[in-house]
Each structure stands twice: as structure tokens, then as C-alpha cells.
């Protein structure tokens, strides 16, 4: 069994009430340089890379659905964990939509296969 000291509880409370220390930087992602420096002749390869990333996100959504189902079987109140899963799902869905948008725009611009 674990217990938290009074000082530890104060530190935890202070941490929980602090705003986030860092703002995520949307420019810092692996796909950015690939988009910036890819040449037209690499479009099919770039689309494969993007589709692989999208497939990875779809798999993550499926894993979150499994976690949500497992959570329903536990004898605990899943409210907060469901909120966290909701947030994760929302971020993943947004990434999938953005990757689809990128594929569509690349296809429009360069006349390649669409997503």
C-alpha cells in the first residue's frame, strides 16, 4: 500500500493546478520536412508514407476502443478515464482528417492518386 506525505500532497496539488508548462508546437512533426522537401516525382512515395501514418492512427483508435470496452468491465467509475480517452480519440481523429486533407491537396496540386 502506498501513501503520500503532507508535503507530497501539497506538491501534487500545486502541480495539478498549474497551467501546462509547454505549448505543443504543431510545426515540430516528422511529416513537415517531408512535405517541404519532397519533389513531384516522389509524390507516390510520399502518399504511401502519409497513408502508413494514417493507418497507424486508425490502429490507435481501435486500441482505444478496446481500452474503453475493458474499462466498462471494471468495478470503478470510468468517468475521468473516459474523458482522457475522449481527448486521445479527438486528437487522433483530427490527425487522420488532416492527413486525408494533405493527400487530397497533394493530389489536386500534382495530379496524383487521391487518398
What is the topological layout?
Layout: H1 6-17, H2 31-37, H3 43-72, H4 79-110
Helix pairs in contact: 3-4
Features:
single chain; 115 residues; mainly alpha; 4 helices; 70% helix
Structural commentary:
The chain is mainly α. It has one domain (29-110). It is 70% helix and 0% strand.
- What is the percent of helical residues? over 70%
The helix/strand class is mainly alpha
N/C terminus separation: 52 Å
Low-pLDDT stretches are: none
What average pLDDT do the residues reach?
Answer: 87
Short description:
The chain contains four helices and no strands. The chain is an all-alpha fold.
Amino acid at each position: 500500500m502506498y501513501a503520500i506525505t503532507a508535503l507530497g500532497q501539497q506538491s501534487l496539488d500545486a502541480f495539478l493546478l498549474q497551467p501546462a508548462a509547454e505549448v505543443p508546437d504543431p510545426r515540430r512533426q516528422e511529416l513537415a520536412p517531408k512535405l517541404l522537401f519532397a519533389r513531384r516525382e516522389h509524390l507516390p512515395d510520399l502518399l504511401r508514407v502519409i497513408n502508413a501514418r494514417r493507418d497507424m492512427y486508425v490502429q490507435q483508435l481501435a486500441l482505444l476502443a478496446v481500452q474503453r470496452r475493458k474499462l466498462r468491465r471494471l468495478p470503478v467509475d470510468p468517468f475521468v478515464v473516459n474523458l482522457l480517452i475522449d481527448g486521445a480519440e479527438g486528437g487522433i481523429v483530427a490527425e487522420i482528417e488532416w492527413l486525408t486533407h494533405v493527400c487530397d491537396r497533394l493530389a489536386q496540386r500534382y495530379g496524383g492518386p487521391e487518398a
